[in-house]
Write a structure and sequence with these properties.
The structure is a homotrimer.
Chain A lengths: L24 E5 L2 E5 L5 H6 L2 E7 L3 E8 L3 E7 L1 E7 L7 E2 L5 H9 L10 E2 L2 E5 L2 E5 L4 E6 L5 E7 L14 E3 L5 H6 L1 H7 L7 H16 L13 H8 L3 H6 L10 E3 L20 H30 L26 E3 L8 E3 L3 E6 L7 H4 L2 E7 L4 E7 L4 E15 L5 E8 L3 E4 L4 E17 L6 E3 L6 H4 L2 H8 L3 H9 L6 E2 L8
Helix pairs in contact in A: 4-5, 11-12
Chain lengths: 505, 505, 505
């Protein structure tokens, strides 16, 4: 007999067996592809998050789009431009006919009659090691302006309270005809899954939905494709033919398109005089300038926070701002480098380093309810047993590999294996994990589902054992005082340990 | 085989087909009626909200009650008094025997021996165009003191975190015998729904519940009806007979009762001397005085917020207040006019106007997690394609009609039709909507499920297209630079557009 | 046919019948036992909370552990030490060889060679009447240093947003072999429940799980038992044999172990010279000193809050702190006495007293989203009809008994009975409750699921009836003006009423 199992906002997480996960499907486009991890995996479901990897080829443009879930992106490789549309904010980047940018443009593409300059919102330069924070519903685009592929790995946090739709991830494209993306990505995929994770009801839906899909197979498209031509034409005040182009009906390029010529984005880096210099040196100076700019941004933010208490996305438009332009949501910092070794929070020359990024260093993260940690572990080095107090951690292996062991509340091993480049491992909240880098060493980026995620190490300096009185350790483990001291003070290192000798022969 | 479909705090929203919704049932009472929208509609379920319309006839009193969900009310028509019980707050309205109010009262109802004046908490005057914010659990009553019907439309946000019960809306009456209200309204209705949305378990419950209802049919009542007479008698220190009157057992008047004589509420407007003047002119002056009072309230709030960071319901009782009476929860502003054309946030003399109300202008909304928009669209005018970034929008048509198109993430049309006076349309988060007023024009009130709801327009000034660099538009839609400029700059208006010519012939 | 019942983050609460609840199982250990209430009870499920009672015998040590849910503990009887591990915080309690503590220790346990003093984090003295707040994921231990049993009753708030796992309560032990605890306590219990509350799917799981349990029966253990010996040995830099002791494999003592000799915890109270004095008098002075220390802590917190707006666990590490040590998370106050009659918030010499503790008086509660009320009701005294506006209330009877009546939104009696010592009663949000102490009087501790829980009394001074205008009462209940006055002013007492005469003969 069917009985109800009352749930209160979450079903049971069955996490006694974790897996190192690779992407389960791939969506090709003209100038790159997207790989998605299976959102039906128990770990992702329990964490309320979805993972994706985007590869944007040289000169590729990821079309403007937005999602119902906030997204934290890590730039694994390459460099490019990122643009975010913050509604209500002015277009602060502008050129005029006499500007160097325009001059250059006219020189190279004289066939176009450019009577006046362009105006648009801020464009951000992103490169390897950057973390990019994207609040839910913000339209954004990414362009690869470098020589190599631009590789991004990202976590979409569908369980974030800013997402008021269901847990399915939905991507809304403003342009193109991302048919394959929508058919296979996101929500519709659920209806096409194999029987394995299907309920009876799910199968009915699947049947019904499939029918719909067959009937409407040609109707997938961007957000304009559902509107009448007349409405679009009136809205943009253009003729019907151009309005129809918004729908991208015959577009076969997918969600990442190749830019015909190089995209000439108005950006401070092009405004300087030294065009003759080598790109690399210019690039260097740009990085420096950027570094300075970011410092200034941080200073402004701290000033604001000191005035107003904890600065958050929500009160960023506070009327108390002395200056409407500088001090608002419109200048919100969305990007931060987390890879610079000089910024490491924990460093052990014999073990490696860990850098964290939370809402104290990047305030927009308090809106995303996400934070990040970037780690480098030298060969055979160890990260002490530790647990995340108030978040899950989604670990992505950037380079090398490591052996992970993860233990649950019953003391049973939920995971014991190798995590290799390109794989994700989800470590549930409070589960205890330890990792040892392989001979090749190990680098990772961790996405954590709390904007001020806290980790509690169980060995080494500043660990739980150091915090406990000796006699508590002694009695808890039924050992001698001398043994309790060795457990307590055996490691003077902090969190990242040099390779051990004792356990290896 | 039955398999589990793990959910994380929300089931799937099936929103590929939206509807313009009319109330599904009506609850009559002595001096008015309440109409409720069907809470089982997918849109309302997904938004976690319920809609209702109350019509209180002249001299009608909506009995004191509270609900488990915060409520945002819009006064569509008429005027009246609203009283809210803020626990722990003093009775700040008081009269003595020599007051004009009392004098008047004695003159007209001399049969009652009134030895001393009344004392009670603040009473608010409400009239057409006011928004009224009611936190969950706050007892309140409404009285129609005007000449015409007092019509209120409201949204109850059961998904608000202040509601710790389930998603069912529950109304607790302090008085009367609102039997019909409870049998048909709120939760019990779920058990009586038709088979359509019934699970097997639901049907069992239904059976069981129906049985209960038949047995206990006479026992529905207000919150006092479940207590022993003795307990009530002791609690109020009155004789059993009067205590029994609290239960309203023989009361047949329903949830809106007719006041025998006019309700003489102690209120600043009656304290003035000019009784001989015409009501209309007095009414005018009252409005003016009120306007001034509201301005003062706003000033005080802003002062507080500047001192304390973002002022919210939670920290309203902050010990830092210099003055216990003035600066606390007790003087929380619950009402704000949103209809005054002079307060419009967006105005286009050829298109119409939109006014918004969020927690910056009415701080209590940060507790409700709701905000409102009031719009007027002239004949054939257009609201540009736009989406709500971080909220659903529940649109109620006040007057006239408009054609809406709403598109989902697959580019498919989720709604394409007319929204007419008295109907609700729910626009889910991130879905893209456009509307064109009919020949009669269109007026609406929108309830949004975020206290700082953000809208992103896709055409016109300050739109997403303006924020994008020309070359991104050019490459995204595969059009010429000149075409991208026309898309970007074709409309100089902001959000509310004058009627188009292009799409209509 | 199986149909879907879409839920939005919570299933339906069936609360038409509440019960006074006693613990459903008991977990024995060497030096005490834990009793757990049945988490499958509808009331607990709906409140998203779980209740437990711990009895720690003289010299017993509750092993270091942490849970996925924040916990609010009330000390019903006895006294002891409490230690919490706040990660990243320094060990602020330290001794050297010449200290009195060490001297004393060496004198009594000279057999151990103590070369240097101990260092550990702050240890808190707890005693009867204290409330202890434990954020999720914080490792803590408790030691009974008194002469009698240390009795704790606690509520674990699994629905707190800090818990990102499912609603099951999971306890992670850092030491020992709490096999019985894990087999019967927390999550695994669900799989062993009787058919009553089992779904078909649940039964399958049960079968599967049981199989697992039988196979792995010996593998339950603490969090170290799932790691390889080598990894542990390297992590702690100790030999394999000692590392293996961490797993507690042969430990038969359970989760509360007996300390062999008295636990000599480094603590300010032992640092003073007067060792010859009687314990009781020393105890007295300690309480005084503690009182002063707590006052100072409160002052510091208020100062911080005045500077920063509402002080919360989240911004406790705010960079604005002038002093890294004193002003951070590391010195967070976790404990507060709620039993001292002098601190009563409401007091009626003929009725009793009520003391509340919320995040204004103990800021860490804003992280727990819990608050507490401690009540004493003299014989036959009454607590007026009241409802909790924004929380559930989990009432635990400490001494004596009371008759409770609880009424739901339909005016039906959800509970009418005696609540006796050692029982829990859950009063759902908005349900109206009244209680009358028995001849023995009544004492209770209430746990409320909101850090600023608000109560609305319906009778007496500052009640809803006082806030309503007389004419509203008159018309709502259809009574005379004189009767409405008697209802409104019949009781001059506030919330806690002296025994009534009217209803009792």
């Amino acid at each position: 007999q069917q009985q109800r199992h009352p749930l209160r906002y979450r079903s049971e997480c069955r996490l006694d067996k974790l897996n190192n996960l690779e992407p389960s499907r791939r969506i090709e486009a003209e100038a790159g592809f997207t790989e998605l991890w299976d959102e039906e995996e128990e770990e992702f479901k329990c964490a309320g998050a979805i993972a994706a990897r985007h590869v944007i080829r040289r000169n590729g443009l990821f079309l403007p789009s937005f999602t119902n879930a906030p997204e934290l992106v890590y730039v694994v490789q390459g460099s490019g431009f990122h643009g975010a549309v913050i509604p209500g904010c002015p277009e602060t980047y502008q050129s005029d006919e006499s500007s160097q940018f325009q001059g250059r443009g006219q020189g190279r593409r004289g066939e176009e009659s450019e009577q006046r300059g362009d105006r648009h919102q801020k464009v951000r330069f992103i490169s390897e090691g950057d973390v990019l924070a994207l609040p839910a519903g913000v339209t954004h685009w990414i362009y690869n302006r470098g020589q190599s592929d631009l590789v991004l790995v990202s976590v979409l946090y569908t369980a974030n309270e800013e997402n008021q739709l269901d847990e399915n991830y939905r991507q809304f494209f403003l342009a193109g005809n991302p048919q394959q993306y929508q058919q296979q990505g996101g929500r519709s995929r659920r209806y096409e899954g194999q029987g394995q994770s299907q309920s009876r009801r799910g199968q009915q839906q699947q049947g019904r939905r499939r029918g719909q899909q067959q009937q409407q197979q040609e109707s997938f498209g961007n957000i304009f494709s559902g509107f009448d031509d007349d409405i679009l034409s009136d809205s943009f005040n253009v003729e019907n033919e151009l309005a129809r182009r918004l729908k991208g009906e015959d577009d076969q390029r997918g969600h990442i398109v190749e830019v015909r010529d190089e995209l000439r984005i108005l950006s401070p880096r092009y405004e300087r005089g030294e065009q003759g210099e080598r790109e690399s040196s210019e690039h260097e100076r740009e990085r420096e300038r950027e570094q300075r700019e970011r410092e200034r941004e941080r200073e402004r933010e701290q000033r604001r926070r000191r005035q107003r208490g904890r600065g958050s996305y929500d009160n960023a438009t506070d009327a108390a701002s002395p200056n409407g332009l500088e001090e608002t949501l419109c200048t919100l910092r969305l990007r931060e480098n987390i890879d610079n070794p000089e910024r490491a929070d924990i460093y052990n020359p014999r073990g490696g380093r860990i850098t964290t990024l939370n809402s104290f260093s990047l305030p927009v993260l308090s809106n995303l309810q996400l934070s990040a940690e970037r780690g480098v572990l030298y060969r055979n080095a160890i990260v002490a047993p530790h647990y995340y107090m108030n978040s899950h951690a989604l670990i992505y292996a950037i380079r090398g590999s490591a052996r992970y062991q993860v233990v649950d509340d019953n003391g049973q091993t939920a995971f014991d294996g190798e995590l290799r480049e390109g794989q994700f491992l989800v470590i549930p909240q409070n589960f205890v994990a330890v990792k040892r880098a392989s001979e090749q060493g190990f680098e990772w980026i961790g996405f954590r589902t709390n904007d001020v995620a806290m980790v509690n190490p169980l060995a080494g300096r500043l660990s739980a054992f150091r915090a406990l009185p000796e006699e508590v350790i002694q009695n808890a483990f039924d050992i001698s005082r001398e043994e309790s001291r060795r457990l307590k003070y055996g490691r003077e290192e902090l969190a990242v340990f040099s390779p051990g000798q004792r356990g290896r022969q």
